[in-house]
Amino acid sequence: MGKLSYERHCAEIVNQADLLVSALDGADLGVQVPSCPDWTVNQLLRHVGYAFRWADDMIRERWPEVDFTRSMSLDVTAYTDEQAAVLGPWISESAQSLASALQAVDPDEMIATLGGRPGPRLWSRRMMQETVIHRWDAVNALSVPFEIDSEVAADNLTEWSRFALPFAFLQRPAETSSLVGPGNTIHLHATDFDCELVIDLTGPMPVVREEHEKAAVAVRGPVMDLVLAVYRRRSVDGLEVFGDRDLLDRFLERVRF
Prior knowledge:
Elements: H1 6-22, E1 32-33, E2 36-40, H2 41-60, H3 84-103, H4 119-142, H5 150-162, H6 164-171, H7 173-176, E3 185-190, E4 196-200, E5 207-209, E6 217-221, H8 223-230, E7 240-243, H9 245-254
Parallel strand pairs: 3-6
Antiparallel strand pairs: 1-2, 3-4, 4-5, 6-7
């Protein structure tokens, strides 16, 4: 249910990067990105490419733990007036190099660890899904159609529940603690792929179950629309919502990533 292999994650880093680059032909990279309003498309592309290079470095150099301060992807505001003919090949080469680095190590090697988890396995999945979301950001800004394999989208949704969701609770405890309470559960149900998640908010940290279960509020829709909703790229308007809409709205606001 919504989980790809390590080998597929590595391959999809390259595939998603190439799909992103293919959308840039003739594009004005100076347009603002509505879903990342502080960036232009140019700056978004620099963010993606530098994220690849940061992950590549920590795998190749076998950093014992992740060091976010060494990522050049965190401040890209200085990049303006660059051309797709330059940025496109740079992104593709960066993705290919990262995939090669990941394929050359044991997925469970304890390098670039985060929260005690093996870095190669974690970052192969995280970088693939980072590229999916930012590809959507870019094509949405450029008014280019977006298509994705539902299997990849389902993997994205489950990866969000295992990475971004607990990250929000750890980083913003004052905000997220108000979501915790008896009976506070959220059911995400994909209608176009076998992917269902129940998010249990009855304890101090969310617990995620991959199953069908009655919840305080349920959201049903195509799996990529669910992904866009939890990443706050779209509202839940137009999706099927049953139950406690207030809990859902507060949840989506406070677990932003």
